Amino acid sequence: MDLGIKNKKALIMASSKGLGKSVALELAKEGAVVMICGRTEADLIETANEISQINNAKVHYVVGDVASGSDRHKILTQAKSKMGTVDILVTNSGGPPFGNFEQHNEQDWENAYRLLLESVVGMIKGVLPDMKKNKWGRIISITSQAVKQPVEGLILSNSIRASVVGLVKTLSNELGAYNITVNNVMPGYTQTKRLENLIAKNPNLLKIAEEIPLGRIGKPEEFAAAVVFLASERASYITGVSLPIDGGWIKGI
Question: What domains lie within the chain, and their CATH numbers?
């Protein structure tokens, strides 16, 4: 299937490793020009080299923290300089600290807000003018299965990521007239370093495969395939959805 995104310009947040990296790799396989970003230059260089081996894919990278307003400005400036425009934006970030309500202070909540919501708003604001002018755009936010079924010990993520779902749904209504789709993807338990860290802090998660109808943890490339489809021309009539990629873990209808 031709997804129709060859030479489209894609900016993927927090993409030096983990789910963001898997998305960047899959977009590059479809012929998109990709820009990756992250906080550690060594990781970015390694990932950029890996991506460049895919059919001589075009890849750029920029060092930046999505939770920082000045860094977001730098990322957007570099994206425009290197690629000219952004056709596909994938918002993503690391997760906030593990813990229950009484373990977090006000600064923890402020930091989580900046990481999980302010970063999404800021990046969308930055790419929207060109998308509206070009009458084409794909905005995809990576949140978590926790926005539909809260995960024990992740109250910061459970609470603040849910607000991104409201943002996505509202924007899908506002931007449809410009041929811009806005969707949310909810990764379940996937083989990443983040999951390893969560299991180290909460050993009960070792049994999570037993809770998943498919009986196993997801692979990053399985998650990325769904994101890339939503970014494609083939998904031009899909907007405002929150898609779980969780092996059936979410129990609600």
Answer: 9-188+220-244 (3.40.50.720)
